[in-house]
Amino acid sequence: MSHLPVTVLVVAKAPEPGLAKTRLAATVGDQVAAEIAAAALLDTLDAVAAAPVAARVVALTGDLDNAPHAAEIRRRLETFTVIGQRGADFADRLANAHHDAADGYPVLQVGMDTPQVSAGLLADCAQRLLETPAVLGLADDGGWWVLGVHTPAAAQCLRTVPMSRPNTGELTLKALRDRGIDVATVQRLADFDVFDDVMVVRDACGRDSRFARVTRSAGL
Fold first, then answer.
1. For 15-26, how does the pLDDT look when each residue is reduced to its tens digit (9 = 90+)?
2. Is 138 helix (H, G, I), strand (E, B) or coil?
3. CA torsion angle for 140, 158, 134, 154 (degrees, to 10)?
4. Is the pLDDT of residue 8 over 90?
5. Tell me, what CATH number does 178's domain have?
6. Among 20, 75, 124, 147, which one is most buried in terms of CB atoms within 10 A?
7. Keyword annotations for this protein (predicted)?
8. What range defines the domain where residue 22 resides?
9. At how many degrees (to 10) do helices 30-50 and 70-77 cross?
10. HEC states along 139-182?
């Protein structure tokens, strides 16, 4: 397949113990939560690296030096353009990341909480984005896992959306449509934030994925 003229943007946080996946860490401990977060990040980066798209960007926050598997993460990032996150809160960081990643292509943004994402699914979303002004993939917890827009200006509406709420996905969809942007919804996925999410996401991952291996070895 030829490369689709789309940039995939991964908004990611260094999986530092004590700072990564704190709601999950409350159950499994800081180190195990960080190991799981590192596995999810690496699985996500592998999928993006294999997707047939024109450009790949990671907007990163945190200190990789303190993260498990830091060397492996750094090697994987060598094939990406890495930029820092900036902004007062998560909504600002998302909107700014769209601005900073823009290089003339539509931008398809994902996080690191859906390690079951595949190169094929990303390609399908990218193709859909080329056919419509915006795409949005809702998450089972009420948020969203993927957002695609053609211009950074379209992503500015994120600044008005309360994040990490049970209705963040629906509010994001409304914010886009209130700006007159036609939005196509794509496949819904589960993401992981708390203990009960882990097995649901693992069941959607390949058995040999890092996420599956790490969560199994942790006895989850």
1. 999 999 999 999
2. strand
3. 180
4. yes
5. 3.90.550.10
6. 147
7. Transferase
8. 4-218
9. 20
10. ECCCCEEEEEECCHHHHHHHHHCCCCCCCHHHHHHHHHHHCCCC
